[in-house]
Structures are given as structure tokens and as C-alpha cells.
Amino acid sequence: MHNLVDFPARIFYIESSSLQAARVRLTQGEVRKDMSAGKREKILKAAISVFASRGFYNAKMEDIAREAGVAVGTTYLYFENKDDLMISIFEEEMEPLINRMRENMATKTTATEKIATFIHSHLTFVERNPDMAHLLEVEMRFCSQFILGYHGGRFKEYLDLISAALVEGQISGEFKTAIHPSIFKQILFGAVDQIATNYTVSKPKRTLLSSFADEITSVILHGIAK
Amino acid sequence: MHNLVDFPARIFYIESSSLQAARVRLTQGEVRKDMSAGKREKILKAAISVFASRGFYNAKMEDIAREAGVAVGTTYLYFENKDDLMISIFEEEMEPLINRMRENMATKTTATEKIATFIHSHLTFVERNPDMAHLLEVEMRFCSQFILGYHGGRFKEYLDLISAALVEGQISGEFKTAIHPSIFKQILFGAVDQIATNYTVSKPKRTLLSSFADEITSVILHGIAK
């Protein structure tokens, strides 16, 4: 049974069964844990580089193995296939991002400032990390042939930063209570992600992306203010 | 030179050169024009059905030809490849949608009502046409290996309905003048599309999608109201 709580940015979904299979495979593997961590890291790094340079669609597991300096068979000890690799990249790259975002938001006193911080930090990350943004926003989409299975652990965590700030502001009296947190996080993320992805694929870049942050912030904050 | 004015919903982009090549091919074709229209239609219809049942990624030109009852070679007289077919489906399906949306919005007097109508009509279409929504929102994304080329004729037209309504409301004094129409159309479309796509891929469907329309409308309209 697939029950998609947070559909992830129209991007990253995978058959959860294959993800689970890959995990089982890892724990059952006979490689020693320390070696395993090292090789897994190497393969992940190589995959980032290969997906970025060749595109997810064209990349082959052989290319990734060559880049990582391991045998092709070895990559399959750690990852089921390209989709599993891409999802793993996403999950790992999101972790520090989520932590930093959480810290940035925690320095703010009001929920209003927290929402503004989310918007600004997301757009600033995209602007400063064009290669990773391309990977997460564009290449990630090609994973989706295995639709409807990715339960979106990290993605859900990321969106929940938005709904938590909304609820905080509803309790403090900053925001209207009529809007539902699970709808609001989709509205805000959808708006910010559309602007960010548009920017990522546009050439030439005429404006600084972070300069759009104020306009989004203004619309959204006026939209929910009490 | 690729200059992407409106990035299309993180979805539908194609190398414009291959689209152009396909068009040149058509006009140079030796098939009679009336026959051409009939066969082209048949192939497009078959492609909709095959993409919907098998998924864009797995579909083959052979499957589409068989479904259309034509030789595989014939499909290449009209369409360069699967991507070209998918983009053509998008462009053709969007035309009546745009016209209906334009008519719906035209029946409203205020810009405020026009924006509300856009949101409500978009979500109602997605809710009532789940197969086409799946095709346009999910399968369409697999076209994107040919990134950065689709100039988004119909998609741009669709988004411009939003910016036109914003400008109308700015002139009438309903909306703040600070927000830029080209940013606003991305914010609104991003929010609505995120909610719609989330709904399309979610199972089970717990709520009517159109019931979310009021929440989005409320946030957005309060966000831009003077």
C-alpha cells in the first residue's frame, strides 16, 4: 500500500520496496562496516559528479563505478540501481540543509521572521549552489518512473519546518487560524520551488534569485497575517 | 541560444531544434494535407492512450504505431520522437483549456474574482480529468532530458492569464503595485501546481481537490490585496 503523505516537489519518488531491498542488502552484506562506509561514500560522490556532468537519464552504473574506482558489481552491493543512488544523494544532501535551515529559523523570535527566513535561505542556497540545485531540482525528476512510492523522509522534514512555523504563528496570534498547515506548506514550497527551478534552468540569469525572496515573502506573509 | 522566458512547470521542455526539425519534416512530407491531419490525430490519440497506460518512460514508438494502426515509419513522418509527441500532446490539450479558462475569467468583473476563478478552474480540471492530469503533470516530466529548449508557447499563454489579471487589479486599485507580474504568475502557478500534483499522485484521495481552492485563494488574495 502506497500512501503518499507529502508529495515531494513533483520530483523524488521511488518504489519504496526497492529502497528497502537496498537497505536489507547493505545490512546483509559481508563487507566490513568501516570499509562499507568508505566505499558507499565514494560511490555516492561519483554519482553526484556523473549525474551532474552527463545527466541522470544518460548516466550508466558503469560510468559511476569507473568514476568511483570500483567494480560495477560493487556498486550493486550498496545501491539497487540509478534511482536508488539518486534518492540516496537527495536524502544525504538534504540532511545538512535541513539542519542549517532549522538553526537559521531558530535564531528568529517571531513566526513571521521564521517564514521569511525559510524563503530567503532556500533561494540563497539555490543561487549559491547551482550544480547541486540542478541535480536536486532537474536531474532528480528523472527518477520518477517509479512513481508513488517514495515516502519522502527528508522532504517531509523540510516541509514540516514550514508547517511548524505556521502553527507557531497561529498560536502566537501572528497568523490566521483558518489555513491548514498541510495545505500551507505545499503552497509556500510550490511557490518558492517554481521560482527557484525557473531560475536554475534559465539562461542567462538576469537577476539575483534572492532578490525575488522579498516579493514571495510579502505575498505569503500578507496572505496569512491576522 | 536558448532563452527560457517561462520555465514550464518544471515539466515540459524539449530541444527546440528537434521540434523545428519535426515541423520542417511535416511541411516537406509528400502526404496529402487532409490525410496528414487525420493520421496525425490518430497517432496523437494513440500516444495519449499508450503514455497513460504504460507510462512515458516505458512507452515505445512501436506501441504507439500499433495502437494507431499505422506503420512505425509513418509515426516518424509526423513526430521526431517520443518527446516531440508528448510536447505536441501538451500543446494541443492546452489550447481548449486556455480558451475555457480565458472565457471563465472573462465572465468576472473584478480582478480579484478572476484570480479566484483561475485557481478554482485549474483544480477542478485536475479533479475531473485524472488521466489527463496524470499525463500532463507526471508523465510529461520525463520529457525533460532535452532540457532548456522548450519555449513554452501554450504554457506561457496559460501563465499570462495570471499576470494579466494581476495587472488589471493593479490598475483598478484592487492589488498592490509592488509585486511584479512575472514573479507573481510563478508564485501562484507554483502553489496551485504543487497542490494539484500532490493530489494527482496521492492514494487514497481523502479530500476533494477543489476544496483546497478556497485556502489557496485566501492566502494569495490577502497577499496581494491593497
What does this molecule look like?
The structure is a homodimer of 226-residue chains. With 226 residues, chain A is mainly alpha-helical. Chain A is 68% helix and 0% strand. The N and C termini of chain A lie far apart (40 Å). The first copy, chain A, is elongated, with a radius of gyration of 19 Å. In chain A, helix 2 (33-54) packs across helix 5 (82-106), helix 5 (82-106) crosses helix 6 and helix 7 (130-137) packs across helix 9 (181-201). Residues 1-26 and 28-32 of chain A have low confidence and may be disordered. The longest helix of chain A has 25 residues, at 82-106. The first copy, chain A, folds into two domains: 16-81, Arc Repressor Mutant, subunit A (Orthogonal Bundle), CATH 1.10.10; 84-224, Tetracycline Repressor, domain 2 (Orthogonal Bundle), CATH 1.10.357. Chains A and B meet through helix 9 and helix 10 of A and helix 9 and helix 10 of B.
Question: Main β-sheet of chain A, in a few words?
Answer: none
Strand content of chain A: under 5%
What is the CATH superfamily label of the largest domain in chain A?
Tetracycline Repressor, domain 2
Level-2 CATH architecture of the largest domain in chain A: Orthogonal Bundle
- Output the number of helix runs of chain A: 10
Q: Any idea what the shape of chain A is?
A: elongated
* Span of the ends, CA to CA of chain A: 40 Å
Total strands of chain A: 0
Helix content of chain A: 55-70%
Oligomer: homodimer
